[in-house]
Task: structure prediction
Amino acid sequence: MDLATALLASTLTMAVPLLLAALGELLVERAGVINIGLEGMMLSGAFAAMVTTYASGSPTLGVIAASASGAILGGLFALVVVYRNANQVVTGVALNLLAAGLTGVAYRAVFGITGAALTVAGIAPIAIGGLARLPVVGEALFAQTPLGYLALALVPASAFLLFGTVPGLELRMVGENPQAAAAQGVAVARVRTLALLACGALAGMAGAYLAVVYARTFIEGMSAGRGFIALAIVIFGRWSPVGILVAALLFGLATALQFHFQALGLAVPYQFFLMLPYVMTLLALSVSAGKSRAPAALGQPYLRE
Result:
């Protein structure tokens, strides 16, 4: 495999979990909710995928369990934020701490304290006929795992949902002016709850990708800030599915470059390469500041009049 092909394939691999989580965050932010708990949902999804796959031998069941665990946390978030009007940022931080603590305790309870890495079979990529043999792009685009294909397919699907359907219009109305949406007969709480459930399921799926595709094991804290990077991707992508795809690929490239730079054996401390995605996150947020408009009611609780 030449360098360009390897770099493109690595970029797609690194971008898939970011894309899944960011598309989920797009739905909730379009509905006017900031879900800082994205990191915790990814981590719980990774743990659920690992445990279920390890016990059943089926990565598919692992992905389903990961989506369910993320949706449960999304439902918990909705219960506190949508129905009790708690502060969204504080609730999200609490959710992240809860997920980090629970997964750590549960991992020791299930597997004990062991220095040996537990591994699972994982999900193998599926090559699409002759397309997978195309030069440079073939292996990267057409030899993905089902989760990879799903993440890419969700980009046009999300765009159609948001901008081509009545439920999408209602979701955007809730995110812009929930009082006006309610006056038009839209059930604001239901829309925000469904968005949070979908976001949790996608974030859990992103965690499953880390556990049963990328690492094929579980390590405490293995989401490694990807939930926060997904938040930045939504802003950098200007709250549009296509923009989020482009941003996820850029962040995937930054993550992939750190591995390729280390492999080149350059006389630069490896910690410098490790911080590339996080430096890029700060740069993206600074570049995006003031150049895009968030949904008008983002972060605001909905109070019935």
About this structure: The first helix runs from residue 3 to 30.
